[in-house]
Amino acid sequence: MSCGTKKGLLIVVSGPAGSGKGTVLSRLLAEDNYRYSVSATTRAPRPGEVDGVNYHFLTEAEFRRRIAADEMLEHAEYCGNFYGTPKKEAYAVLDSGCNLLLEIEVAGAAQIKKKYPEAVLIMLLPPSFAVQESRLRGRGTETEEKIKQRLARTREELTYIGDYDYVVYNYDNGIDEAVADIRAIVRAEAHALSRNPEACRSYFET
Question: Which of 42, 47, 90, 164 would bridge 123 by S-S if both were Cys, CB 3.0 to 4.6 A apart?
Fold first, then answer.
């Protein structure tokens, strides 16, 4: 795995249900300079899932040991199971020069920013709350109660938006634009002087 000579960027993308995170990230991951790291979980594998490919499937005791040893970049408990991002695997991607893309909910994103301040946090949103509700209802796959839960969760998630560096809107039929916006953010961040402290010295030495 090699994407370049400089350290890659850690890019966290969060967004409420209906924001199109999965579609946007899959488009980016199809490109050469983006990678993901396999998450860890304590839940049981589902049919067809492979350890080390879909997830690192761990016992609860092992997961707790890794938390205590500060081996997780972020972690959360959801529906009785732990989920998290192993540091070792994430850092290996970054050290290879590849950009690491993580789809993480807001609390996990805050953990990452604290442990890895260089991370770039992007909030992906539908164009409005009304559009989000329309998208969720248009799926036709969830109960009214579930839709209301997701919309209520959105109000909680958006209280964290001040912790993010960028907001990108995923308009209807706007996947290409959202992907292009994230690419532009990554390009700009790669050229930030804070990431290129040797610019002046190397200019005169080469």
Answer: 164
